Amino acid sequence: MPISSVYPSVPLVDTVDFWSLVQIKISKYMDRVCMIDGATEAKVTYKEFHSQVLRMRNNLWQRGMRKGDVFMNLTPNSNQAPVVMFACLSLGGIYTASNPVFTPGEIRTQLLDSNTRFFATTQLLLPVATEALKGIDLKLLIVYDSVGRAAVSFEDMLDPATPEAPKVTIHPREDIALMLFTSGTTGKPKGALISHYNLVSNNLQASSELSYFHGDDSVSSTVFFVPLFHIFGIFLFPHAITHGKTVVFMAKFHVEDYLSLLCKYQTPVAAVAPPIATLLAKSPIIDRYDLSFLRHLFVGAAPVLPSIEQAVKKRLPHLELRQTMGMTEMGLALVIPKGRNVQGSAGLMLPKTECKVKNSPDMHVLNICVCFKVVDPNSGGELTANQEGEVCFRGPQTMVGYMNNPEATEKAIDKDGWLATGDIGYYNRDGYIFITDRLKEVIKCKGFQVIPSMLESLLMEHDAVADAAVIGIPDDYSGEIPKAFVVLKENKTATSKEIQGFVAGKVAPYKHLKGGVQFIDMIPKSVTGKVLRRVLKEKNGSVSGANNYFQSEAN
Q: Which of 341, 348, 398 is nearest to 368 (CA)?
């Protein structure tokens, strides 16, 4: 049956664009430090940030940028990237970003799919960018740290003598602000189109009790390595600055650099992807640092295994781990409230969002503030609490659709506005949502459904296992059978037979690891921590292939 959010509705507006909202919210913080480069310690105040956005806006207009033009950023996290993003949005442009570790071919695909005409990168990434840009007609190429007159630099784009750009009329509900490419973990990445209204709504929804900063706009810092080409980073940066926080950027994650910055800036709130939660749970490096100042750890981009959550709490008992859930197509949807954590849950629904759950092909659907229900795929009848299905959302933050892909849009969003997430989950009687796995990753063995993440969580309980992933492999008799890829802890040993027996003693026969156990050095994951099961399937039986992929994604 439908359920509603426990939180009161929040007023939303459809008359203001995203940059205008941010300007209003940051106006009271002008004397504070807005951004710090974690490596160089270069600082930008809110006043300077605001001025840079306006000057960048003027120079983009002078160089031909108009409403609807697409600007792609190919850079690591930096003090410059947010300036370019907001300048682009203020002109009615469409901002997109690519992963700095992508190959020229991967970047080129996004360039062509997005019809990019304005592009920014760094000297270090320029050779890759140049290869990707061959034959593409750009209006402007910016190389942030360019010296001399070889290319237009970031400083060139802040020329204060440039005439002021005219006001551009933006229709928040219709006009696109972002084109963010999906991770492609289950297929080719698609360009999700996100309107100004989507961004404004999500920012206002998250400014409630469910805020990462609990409504606190006091002076404090947050160390930021979450990539600004990913929805997690795109959501989190504006959320931080509209609460007056100082964002300390890391261009590239390194565990000791991260821990040192946390300690240096005494960060009370951190937002991370699941691999960092695993590191906090298991790495001996953590013991070298006093993290008593860190009070809240938000984990997003992918679910955290219950075993990892337990290990973090045991090791850092003062720390409250709070899962969140969002997606490229919808931004933030769920957050664990302060002091109300339920282990394994992705959180409660945000205000103004609806949720329902559908079984099998259409399983679970989430709705923030309106309703949540579970529907049987065969009969159409509604399911009840604690029954698994596909999670679906409906809310003001739901994307407009996919770029030049009406078929995929229609498949993702039904006629009533429900967005199918492809995640399997359920809700309990208190309204907490639990995400258990990806629908397309479910293993179908002898007609039964086997959830990979459940077996992975079980494997993580083995004393010798540092990390694990499970896939289904073809079997003539059963259809599919589970196979585990396992990373052993340093100085620990275990045999395949031992691990198979460990699992067999705890689950039903159809969940046994009849596909075997393969030991590898690293589990292939995306930069946001999602297990790349398709890579494991493609490289089934090949250890080196999976390891090489992980390196290319993580570095």
A: 348
Q: Which of 3.40.50.12280, 3.40.50.2300, 3.30.465.10, 3.40.50.12780 would CATH assign to domain 198-439?
A: 3.40.50.12780
pLDDT at 116: 97
Find the mean pLDDT for residues 48-70: 98
Q: Between the CA of residue 367 and those of 1, 308, 334, 373, what are the distances in Å? A: 12, 28, 10, 8
pLDDT > 60? residue 538: yes
Give the number of other CB atoms < 10 A from CB of residue 47.
15
Counting residues of the chain whose pLDDT is more than 70, the rounded percentage is: 86
Q: How far apart are CA 156 and CA 142, in angstroms?
A: 9
Q: How far apart are CA 353 and CA 334, in angstroms?
A: 9
* Domain range annotation of the chain: 22-31+46-170, 198-439, 447-554
- Rounded distance between C-alpha atoms, residue 131 and residue 529, angstroms: 28
pLDDT digits (tens, 9 = 90+) for 464-500: 999 999 999 988 778 889 999 999 998 999 999 999 9
| Percent of the chain surpassing pLDDT 90 | 50
**Do 301 and 273 form a contact (C-beta atoms < 8 A)?**
yes
At 30, give phi and psi (nearest 5°).
-55, -30
pLDDT in tens, 103-131: 898 899 999 999 999 999 999 999 999 99
Nearest to 462 by CA among 502, 505, 522, 514: 502
- Classify domain 22-31+46-170 by CATH number: 3.40.50.980
CA–CA separation, 291 vs 286, rounded Å? 9
Selected from 3.30.300.30, 3.40.50.2000, 3.30.70.120, 3.90.1300.10, the CATH number assigned to the domain covering 447-554 reads 3.30.300.30
Where do runs of H (alpha helix) occur along 381-429? 406-412
pLDDT at 541 over 90: no
- Asked if 324 contacts 336 with a C-beta cutoff of 8 angstroms, the reply is yes
> Is residue 326 a contact partner of residue 336, using CB atoms and an 8 Å limit?
no
